[in-house]
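thread: overnight batch results

M.L. [08:02]
morning all. the overnight job finished for the chain we discussed friday. pasting input first so we're all looking at the same thing
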Amino acid sequence: MTESIEAAPSSDDAERIAQAAEWDSRFAMHVHRPPGGGALGTAVSAAGSWLTLADGTELLDLHGQYMSMGVGHNHPRVRAALHKAVDDLGYCVDLFAHEAKGRAAKLLVEDTMEGSDWAGRVRFVASGTEAVETALLMARIYTGRQVVVTRQLAHHGWTEGAAAVSTSTINRGDYFDLPQGRVRNAVVQHAPIAPAPFCADCPLGRTPAHCKDANGTLACVRETERTIRSVGVHNVAGFITELYNAAGAYVVPPEYPAQIREMTERLGIVWIDDEVVAGVGRTGRWWAFQHYGVTPDIVVAGKGLSSSAAPVGACIVSRKISDYFDTGIWTAAGSFHGHPLSVAAVAATLETVIEEDLVTHAAELGEHVRHRLTEMASRHPSLDNFEGSGLAWILNFVDPATGRRWTPTDRWYDVTADGETFKPSEFITEACVKRGVLLFPFLPNSMHLGPPLAITRQELDFGLDVLDEALGELDAQPTEASHGHGH
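M.L. [08:03]
and the structure it wrote out:
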């Protein structure tokens, strides 16, 4: 608990909040909720790493709500920047320069790049999904080609282009549980799909000992090049990746980024690195690619870029690409691109991360998380393994009696076929919420830890203690046979 949590609402406030919640239930469409299900609760305030609900419940945000929180909820500096933006400007289109946009752009292109001068310019848009759309468009304009290759177990957003390069079955604009059990998807898949670089369950059936060729190239990289060549290199504009894969819940093998960089450069293909989740310090570096000593052609950012205080996304592009775009007129304008409130939140977030040294803070807390999870895994047979760095962690659960996944399809989960299986991620989520810690389930056997970068060690330990207790409850769950499923 922190001192910044606000007091419970007054009786008049409570009445207004209850009325708004009722209107939400009646008139708002809800995502990730069962038929007839309403909101998870009614949020009334947030500060730092804590969220407060109308009934007085205070939750430590150990997930960062879709891993979207940068410097934390309602940070004073970010809030002040938003107020100043409203008072000074309010709104103007992206054709104008203004203080916050220039400052945010400079910070992204220079200050977050750890001394590298690869980046040329940044394009601000209205969300991470829209930033992916922009990156796809830029790759196609720059190369004069149309095809963008993606990977299995990918998620890059919900709009048409972003969803087309998203291959996770769980979150691609689908609508489940409709009458007659049908699943409708508004997006037609048209992006070639390369293997996921997911070593724990290699889609190519390889093991680490039997993966690399004589040159040390990973099998998934070799197959990615074959996928590109099967389309025709002359047709392929780009290849899109995540290095910390949120939807797929895995981290790429250490050799993968450098080998993808070599391949895309050799073939003349744009490498798009989606860091909407991983960027702005979450992995213990400003950007996930910086762990691997390589630079992509386009970096996609969002979420923690503004600490989600205002909707924003961004594409940071290489000097070579930005120089190319400087030779012509680009007409892809948007009403909210470079919005004064959004970029003010970006600049304030980045300045806070720098001045409070939150990238180092995240890296140091990450080592503490690694130690705590290692100790938990030694005591809890339900925690099979984990991976990550900084404040971006993936936990994988198994049936403690058998050592096998509760939901056999795992990352290849099909809502219509596997909907009745026991899902340990949902069990852990519910067990933690009862103890005052907010986590979100996503994949059935896996979940993420992604708290705000400014979380304190004391708060983090509280959250990990609660997770420890929840794992104890999962250890005691009936076996898979008792839950009525098999392999």
